[in-house]
Amino acid sequence: MESTKKRILDEAVAAFAARGYEAVGVQDLCEASGITKPTLYYHFGSKAGLLSALFEERFGGFNACVRAASAYPGPRRGDLAGILLSTMTAFVDAARDDPDFARVRLASSFCPPSSDPYRVARPHLEALYAAVVDAFEAAAVDHGNMAGRALPYAASFIGASDAYVGLYLAGDLDPDAGFLRRAVHYFMHGIFS
Amino acid sequence: MESTKKRILDEAVAAFAARGYEAVGVQDLCEASGITKPTLYYHFGSKAGLLSALFEERFGGFNACVRAASAYPGPRRGDLAGILLSTMTAFVDAARDDPDFARVRLASSFCPPSSDPYRVARPHLEALYAAVVDAFEAAAVDHGNMAGRALPYAASFIGASDAYVGLYLAGDLDPDAGFLRRAVHYFMHGIFS
DNA sequence: TCGATCATATACCGTTCGGTATATTCCTTC
DNA sequence: GAAGGAATATACCGAACGGTATATGATCGA
């Protein structure tokens, strides 16, 4: 059944968030899901395959949200402040909706290059960066002095957003609408403004 | 000998950077260091003890550099731009000097809460944040409209710096002096400036 | 009702895990 | 040169690892 796969994925993201991919055994996941190992291997083929399916579902969904929120051309063209706000809000809302996956995603952003999480997460991480880079490149058409700086802008924007998410997950920060509005304002106009 | 400990630590940081703490076996480290397991356990007591010694040495040194670079009161009082520049430069220089530890440090910044790396890294991560928060709080004395915002400023500053370090380690960015000067300028005065 | 296919379980594989009881070598100090 | 501690090695522990060969229910079209 499809519900079995879903249950396994739910238990997996919770376990990976709490203890990390490498530290979680396949046996643990099976017991938590109320199944046995052959069932897990029937559905996902391997432990890395399970992680891949998890990322396909959740990282794909997250990236779709970010890309939708950061789309610069079209009806919102010119409203860079609004676009950055909705993009950063997408980061935070995703963490509120699915804190376990947010933890796994953050951990994957700096995971070691010779590891399953790196191989599995890399295309999704690149897609996330590409979405934000595209937004800054599109904005540079209307703001000439931003030209050629899309990558550093995207890095600092994603870095800051993920830092907020990390603090939120740790309970050290509540990034409400006002906080995000101010954060975007600083990003665009500097910390003195 | 002291050199044995040093050799083990050097091999450990390289292995953890490449494959991650959990994925590296004690046996691997012993073979890479040319010793046997009882020797490692004689010096460090446990695998977590080894990680702790590693962080004590390298994370402590990194934090000392950051705190020195970000000290706001004293002779440089008022020169916030210079302080932020030297602080971000400390991040990047540390990554150039010791890329393996930089990888391990980045990985530790979002590692799962029920893991050895989290327990071991947490005090150092808090010390790093505290150093940068202190700098922004001190600066708020001279820049009134920054008051009460030290934590979000520190988060976005550290988040952006670590994002640059991550891109540097991946070979996607060369954060030279000019890059850092511009990055600090955007941080202080916004991306349009 | 008969195969066939999907989905699941029992029981097991060899390997590696972190860690240790014990013995030995080396270096220093008296 | 004897004593003693510091540093190292041999050989082993039980447990857990990821993964699988094989068998069994369930479901369903012919």
Written overview of the protein:
Two copies of one chain form a homodimer. Chain A is mainly α. Chain A has one domain: Tetracycline Repressor, domain 2 (Orthogonal Bundle). Helix content of chain A is 76%, strand content 0%. Chain A has helices spanning 2-19, 26-33, 37-44, 47-70, 80-97, 99-109, 116-142, 150-169, 177-189. In chain A, helix 5 crosses helix 9. The first copy, chain A, is elongated. Chain A starts with a helix and ends with a helix. The model of chain A has no long low-confidence stretch (mean pLDDT 94). Chains A and B meet through helix 1, helix 6, helix 8 and helix 9 of A and helix 1, helix 6, helix 8 and helix 9 of B.
Task: Summarize the helices and strands and which ones pair or pack.
2 copies of one chain form a homodimer.
Chain A: H1 2-19, H2 26-33, H3 37-44, H4 47-70, H5 80-97, H6 99-109, H7 116-142, H8 150-169, H9 177-189
Helix pairs in contact in A: 1-2, 1-6, 3-4, 4-5, 4-7, 5-6, 5-8, 5-9, 6-8, 7-8
Chain A binds a DNA duplex (30 and 30 nucleotides) through residues 1, 4, 25-27, 35-39, 41-43, 46-47.
Features:
homodimer; 193 residues; mainly alpha; Tetracycline Repressor, domain 2; elongated; DNA-binding
Domains of chain A, number: 1
Mean pLDDT of chain A: 94
Biggest sheet record of chain A: none
Q: For the record, what is the CATH homologous superfamily label of chain A?
A: Tetracycline Repressor, domain 2
The top level CATH class name of chain A: Mainly Alpha
The secondary structure category of chain A is mainly alpha
Question: How much helical structure, as a percent, in the residues of chain A?
Answer: over 70%
State the CATH topology of chain A. Answer: Tetracycline Repressor, domain 2
Low-confidence stretches of chain A: none
